[in-house]
Design brief:
The chain has two domains: 237 residues, no CATH class; 236 residues, Nitrilase/N-carbamoyl-D-aminoacid amidohydrolase, CATH 3.60.110. Helix 3 packs antiparallel against helix 5, helix 5 runs antiparallel to helix 7 and helix 10 runs parallel beside helix 11. The chain contains 16 helices and 13 strands. It has 533 residues and is of the alpha/beta class. The protein is elongated, with a radius of gyration of 26 Å. Strands 1, 2, 3, 4, 5, 6 and 13 form a seven-stranded mixed β-sheet that branches. The protein has a six-stranded mixed β-sheet with strand order 7-8-9-10-11-12, with helices on one face.
Length: 533
């Protein structure tokens, strides 16, 4: 007994049009990947994301499962190969291609599920938006976690930094934003599938408009009434590329010098004195807790500016080769406060630690450049005195739970310390879009501070303020709102995503029942015809 969709397109029982001809399926999948790619920074054509979703749904509808997988995989390759091409700077072309192939396969699974659910939408076209939204949300839930802790880059939600849909993040986080965008794509394909005007088509058009523009009416938090002044120091590096580590003393000097310059401006009355200064990840790759020269430089900067500095530092351990990526609070007068230190909880596999090291050597010659970064064991809640900071480091901003843990732990402001010296401005702008979502999601003012850019402040509506350039030195000072009401998204946590996964599993199981029932009916009809003869 086969459970595959029919190989030949059929007119549906409801009289809906035939599926897309097979020769158009691959071009549609390729266009889907291209539309999705262009929706992300640095292009920022967010309105193409629903179109990309619709194109893939149409291409996979009523295809055989294997064909659907290949179509989804093709779309995924068109999306991910250019989207994460910045990984070549640090790791070379082989890891880039392997990662792109792996991430693209998740869209293959998504397309398979779309094909599997074809009978349900044939009989109930109104389910297109619902099922499409659920499938995309569930696909991302899986991709965000597996393998090796997942790689959330390329989530639909992260393409919506300047879109109306961003506002719904306050009510269900990134999963709800993805659901809304994908549901809009489902409404679009359902509308186009009708190919003629009808009352259902009008309903799909209204739903599409509501999903795209309706979030403009959704209120978001405006943060608390108290403000504190926070400075961002983007010291820059002498040269971009993986060898920034060999320049670590120059990088530290750049951040110290920029802070001292700000202190001079404060003393001259040309700049506002900050309550807190935030340096980026890797601003001190020389362990300041073990190196007196580095400690003395940072102490001088803190004393001169008269405010605590959150320093991004690489800490050595007693085990050679083991390191920690940390944010350390450095106070004026007293120096480092090791009780207010955050160690990165989610080191990046194959970049900050090396699983399968012997196998990885077959792929890249840069394996031995990767040390063994140890994971932290607690959320990044840093009590600076003037305010409580929610600190996450670099790629951690892409992971829902890591950011949420800082807010439930009392964070009044979100901070993302990052180092983009081994990447490009495209990666930095993709990361900035994630910070935009987090600010709206948790109703907290946020900042991103990078060694080379892009750095900036984000308010609770997702608007970016004072964005720096890339590969330049920059110092910014801004008043940030502290705290604010707890959003529904913060209270719900992973519940919306879990609900989407459960409903998706139920839908896939329901399609199985529907297929078996259909097979029984066809077998009975065949037996009746045989008996009549």
């Amino acid at each position: 007994m086969t459970l595959q969709p029919p190989a030949t397109p059929l007119v549906t029982a409801s009289g809906a049009p035939r599926p897309i001809r097979a020769r158009w399926a691959l071009p549609m999948a390729i266009l889907s990947g291209a539309a999705l790619l262009l929706s992300f920074p640095p292009y920022g054509l967010w309105w193409l994301a629903p179109a990309g979703v619709a194109l893939l749904a149409g291409a996979a509808h009523r295809r055989r499962l294997r064909t659907a997988f290949l179509l989804g995989w093709a779309a995924g390759l068109v999306l991910f190969v250019p989207l994460i091409s910045w990984t070549t700077i640090g790791a070379g072309w082989a890891p880039w291609i392997l990662l792109s192939v792996a991430e693209g396969a998740f869209l293959g699974l998504l397309a398979m599920a779309t094909a599997w659910l074809s009978p349900m939408v044939d009989r109930r076209p109104w389910m297109w938006p619902l099922l499409t939204g659920l499938l995309w949300t569930s696909q991302e839930a899986l991709r965000d976690r597996a393998p090796f802790g997942g790689f959330p880059w390329g989530r639909l939600a992260f393409s919506q930094g300047d879109a109306p849909a961003l506002r719904v993040a306050a009510y269900g986080g990134a999963p709800l934003v993805t659901f809304v965008v994908a549901a809009a794509g489902g409404a679009l394909i359902a509308l186009l599938w009708r190919r003629r005007f009808s009352v259902p088509a009008l309903g799909f058009a209204v739903l599409l408009a509501a999903l795209l523009a309706g979030p403009l009416l959704v209120p978001v938090s405006h943060g608390g009434s108290t403000t504190k002044t926070v400075a961002i120091v983007q010291g820059n590096v002498p040269r971009l590329g993986l060898d920034f580590n060999s320049q670590r003393r120059a990088v530290l000097d750049n951040h110290v010098d920029a802070t001292l310059k700000l202190a001079n401006e404060v003393a001259a009355g040309t700049a506002t004195k900050p309550d807190l200064v935030v340096w980026p990840e890797n601003s001190s790759d020389i362990d300041p807790l073990r190196n007196p020269d580095a400690a003395q430089e940072i102490t001088e900067a803190a004393d001169r500016i008269g405010a605590p500095i959150l320093v991004g530092a690489v800490l050595q351990t007693d085990t050679p080769g083991d390191i920690k990526n940390a944010g350390i609070l450095w106070n004026p007068g007293t120096g480092p406060d090791t009780s207010q230190t955050y160690v990165k909880r989610h080191p990046v596999p194959f970049a900050e630690y090396m699983p399968l090291r012997s196998v990885a050597r077959l792929v890249t010659d840069k394996v031995d450049l990767v040390q063994n970064m140890l994971a932290g064991d607690h959320p990044g809640v840093i009590k600076t005195g003037p305010l409580t900071l929610g600190d996450v480091i670099c790629f951690e901003v892409a992971y829902d739970g890591i950011v949420r843990d800082t807010v439930t732990g009392g964070a009044q402001v979100l901070a993302v310390q990052t180092n983009n010296a081994t990447f490009t401005d495209a990666e930095a702008r993709q990361q900035m879009a994630m910070v935009q979502l987090r600010a709206v999601e948790h109703g907290r003012d946020a900042l991103m501070v990078s060694t080379v850019g892009v750095s900036g402040y984000i308010d609770t509506s997702g608007r970016i303020h004072g964005e720096s350039g890339f590969n330049v030195a920059s110092v910014m000072v801004r008043a940030m709102r502290l705290g604010g009401p707890t959003t529904l998204a913060t209270r719900l946590g992973a519940a919306p995503e879990v609900a989407a996964v459960v409903l998706t599993i139920a839908a896939l199981a329901g399609a199985l029942v529907l297929r078996r029932r259909r097979r029984v009916i066809l077998d009975d009809e065949k037996d009746e015809r045989a008996g009549a003869r």
